[in-house]
Design goal:
- By secondary structure, the protein is α/β, with parallel strands linked by helices.
- 26% of the residues lie in helices and 27% in strands.
Amino acid sequence: MSTLYISFSAIYKLYWETCLNSIFNQTYKNIQVIVVNDGSTDDTEVLLTNLLDPRLEIIRQENRGASHAKNKGLENAKGCYIQYLDADDILSPDKIE
């Protein structure tokens, strides 16, 4: 299993859908996707809860900053390999393979 950790920011809101599609469309399917919602005040929570992929794990916390959010994602990772992503990143379909 590989773990993909995504950091969402309101600044990159326009790219979320493309980023998430590039993750969920990986040719290697045995992945865990962790999103840490670090106290967002926009509609991030709505976007995330509307996703119906069993590989997705959403962690909610008060705003504690990017470093804490990444560490929280790492604490919950079950995979042997970790891929950090920001919401404006796009993976090629075979990146995790």
